[in-house]
UniProtKB/TrEMBL annotation:
Organism: Streptomyces paludis
InterPro entries referenced in this protein's UniProt entry, alphabetically: Nucleotide-diphossugar_trans (IPR029044)
Name of this chain's protein: Glycosyltransferase
Length: 353
């Protein structure tokens, strides 16, 4: 019996400069005239859609334009198309990537074809980036579900037909306050955790940092959309986490030099995002993460727990930038791994493992 073809979803917003190269790389990875690439666009102008449409591809293409703003809304709109729902495996790729590598996309597709529910890219991040991943998402997911995924919020992934269908159904059943988050940056955590409840999750290791648009300027939106989803799904996790077998936790924090002026600019920006709340006690990280998870597990709304966690998170990122600026690559990786292990230890009495 001939296997069903694969498909791809390319969500975008104002990425005319990079979408064509990503589409060409994805088409090379699919390498199948029966495949389809869906461009799900919510740009302010037609330039991004025009750039995508100009690419010559072996696969068929579908352009969705004028979509609701939000990465998740775009992905879910594409996922509801019959051509996507019928594909054996669906690749989702960030369209802001510079120099995309077809081999990465191909490896993700192959992992799902080999039986994974979801395969996600594992590329090293520069030490000053990926703060939500390194300080919160990765250690929380690992402690509560047993899945230690190095880059759980990576935008390049492949998902099986069954896992994507599960995610689409679960998204439709979300309460409004969580649906808003999943329609935005919360989609990455949502896809990972809904897939992890259906089958194996694996990573494709990449040696070089990904070249793409920085996310620092979107930090408040990413936090307030991703963290409620993370807290909700990890607190509701019904399976017992896989037991720890003593494997060392490894973080890859790629080095790069930041000027003192750049560090100060980032610190100033963080300082203006939220004042410390009344009664703030400087509780050491990652204890505030454990507190937020326990609160949701006890009935607090995920959005409320996220708001309470926000100033603690900002304090953590400021401390990380100050200390990391003078640390070695090895020291940074060790500090991240130590915090990861602390969260696991703290959550053990709460029933997370």
């Amino acid at each position: 019996m001939t296997p069903k073809p694969a498909a791809a979803i390319l969500p975008s917003r104002n990425e005319a400069a990079t979408v064509a190269a990503v589409a060409a790389a994805v088409d090379s990875a699919l390498d199948d005239a029966r495949a389809v690439i869906v461009h799900a666009d919510s740009s302010d102008t037609s330039h991004t859609a025009d750039s995508f449409a100009a690419v010559s591809t072996l696969a068929g293409t579908v352009g969705l334009t004028g979509l609701e703003r939000g990465k998740g809304a775009q992905i879910l709109a594409a996922a509801r198309l019959a051509k996507i729902a019928d594909a054996e495996v669906v690749l989702i790729a960030d369209t802001d990537t510079r120099d995309p590598d077809p081999a990465v996309h191909r490896a993700l597709l192959d992992r799902v074809r080999d039986g994974a529910a979801l395969a996600i890219a594992d590329y090293p991040r520069h030490w000053d980036e990926a703060n939500l991943t390194n300080h919160l998402a990765r250690p929380l997911i690992a402690a509560t579900t047993g899945h230690d995924v190095p880059q759980p919020l990576a935008g390049d992934l492949a998902v099986s037909r069954e896992a994507l269908a599960t995610a689409v159904r679960a998204a439709a059943a979300l309460p409004a306050e969580l649906a808003v988050c999943t329609n935005g940056y919360g989609i990455d955590a949502f896809l990972l955790l809904t897939a992890a409840a259906t089958g194996p999750v694996t990573s494709v290791r990449i040696d070089e940092p990904k070249r793409h648009a920085g996310s620092f300027g979107h930090l408040p939106a990413i936090f307030h959309q991703a963290v409620p989803v993370l807290l909700h799904l990890t607190a509701a996790w019904s399976r017992s986490p896989a037991p720890s077998v003593g494997r060392p936790v490894v973080y890859r924090a790629a080095d790069r030099a930041l000027s003192p002026d750049r560090v100060q600019t980032m610190l100033t920006a963080l300082g203006g995002l939220a004042p410390l709340p009344d009664g703030y006690d400087g509780e050491p990280w990652p204890l505030p993460v454990a507190g937020a998870w326990r609160a949701v597990n006890s009935g607090t709304a995920p959005a409320d727990a996220t708001r309470q966690l926000w100033p603690h998170y900002l304090h953590r990122v400021r401390d990380w930038l100050v200390s990391g600026h003078h640390a070695t690559t090895r020291q940074r990786a060790q500090a991240l791994a130590a915090a990861h292990d602390r969260l696991h230890t703290v959550l053990v009495p709460a029933g997370a493992s």
